[in-house]
Write a structure and sequence with these properties.
- With 98 residues, the chain is α+β, with helices and mostly antiparallel strands.
- It contains 4 helices and 4 strands.
Length: 98
């Protein structure tokens, strides 16, 4: 079963949700194999030098950073969350409302 954030990507991508998964420090081949094996459809970026990790103050994985349409930080969460539960769905629906 896909991760909760991958499920959210699949459910809300047509409504405008963009999921950018950032891998911290693994090589391209390792990440590519993991993406294929887990059938990940969201965009996965590599951060070998830790620039994104520093910019978004990532101290644990997984970390989810929510950025609004205007580019401002809306929220952040550390650890796994039930993004596809009622509360998570309502949050995405509210953030994606036009």
């Amino acid at each position: 079963m896909p991760s909760a954030i991958e499920q959210a990507h699949r459910a809300f991508k047509d409504a405008g949700l963009t999921v950018l998964a950032v891998n911290l420090g693994e090589d391209r081949g390792t990440v590519a194999a993991w993406v294929r094996a887990n059938k990940v459809t969201s965009t996965v970026l590599l951060d070998p030098a830790g620039a994104a990790q520093r910019a978004y103050r990532v101290t644990a994985t997984p970390t989810v950073v929510l950025v609004g349409r205007d580019g401002r930080l809306v929220g952040r969460a550390h650890g796994n969350r039930p993004w596809m539960g009622d509360t998570g769905r309502r949050l995405f629906e509210a953030l994606l409302a036009k």
